[in-house]
Amino acid sequence: MKVNAAPLDRTASGPAHLGIERLLERFAGRPIVVLGDVMLDEYWWGSVERISPEAPVPIVAVDAKEAKLGGAANVAQNIRSLGGQVTTIGLIGDDQAGERVRAQFVRQGLDTSGLQVDHTRPTTVKTRIVAHHQQVVRADFEATGEAAPETTETLVVACRAALEAGAAGLVISDYGKGVITRSLLEAIIGAARERGKFIVVDPKDTHFSAYRRVTLLTPNHHEAGFVAGRKIRDETTLRAVGFDLLSQLEADSLLITRGEKGMALFEADGRMTSIPTVARHVYDVTGAGDTVVAAIAMCLAAGGNMLQAAYTANVAAGEVIKEVGTAQTTPGAIREALAEIPEPQLTFQQR
Hints:
Layout lengths: L2 E5 L12 H5 L6 E6 L1 E14 L6 E14 H10 L3 E9 L2 H12 L7 E4 L5 E8 L2 E8 L7 H16 L4 E5 L8 H13 L3 E5 L13 E2 L3 H8 L6 H15 L3 E5 L5 E5 L3 E5 L12 H14 L4 H15 L10 H10 L4 E6 L1
Parallel strand pairs: 2-5, 2-9, 3-7, 5-6, 9-10, 10-11, 11-12
Antiparallel strand pairs: 1-15, 3-4, 7-8, 12-13, 13-14, 14-15
């Protein structure tokens, strides 16, 4: 096994050069379809000064509330923030939360035409109570059963139409809330491949075997180890899990996110690339995975390769986890971050 350590050279050409700055210039207007679980993230902000006399829990004096788009909707918002054009296909309920999601879409300049109303289920809402920058508790309002077959068919039709309208690729954002089903995956992955579109998946471990023949999956190390039946403990188990999953799923590539240890990119040509984290200030990792798949999709839509996409996503994620709650970044912010990051060592290994 040959191992090379190569610094990230931003000026030279060749395999070690990522050329991210020039890639960022091509982000504007790239069309992407996002399919998945649309959610509303609520934040109740306050302070704690005493413990409840009724139970050993803190009393949070709420002084502000905020609502943000979550799940697939946050992926869409990230793509929009990066300069892309996005069509979001997902479900909302016939309820007040659904109307709030739609209003947020309009406020953020996002297309609402792909939001399908399902009268049989509520809009997914995650309410987080935060005190002194620490999450105290989270309450989820949701229905996680699979969408009805006729609803799934409506989503398939909408997604196919969006792909045929000229989208560069598809992002599947699976939070396990019932939108992404095996039948949906079979229909949509096939449709995207037939049309020559890339497919980037933020996966849920319950559906792993159905993510076959996609361009890229982005599990975290816990998810990857669970699905492979082998806990990732070191570089040896990481390499074994990564290449095993890549082979089993017949995917083009696999990106395992590893928290403070960065990312590991596995490609079908047998190369594994370790990418060190660039995050220096971590306040909240909520939504970081959304930013990762959004940045990767934008890079691929702009003509970048998978290594460029993975490193850009690494930098983008490092920016959004500086904020509390779901957040987005921009090409300008990524460019500024690149200028401040010391030259990293990308470790290449051949299987």
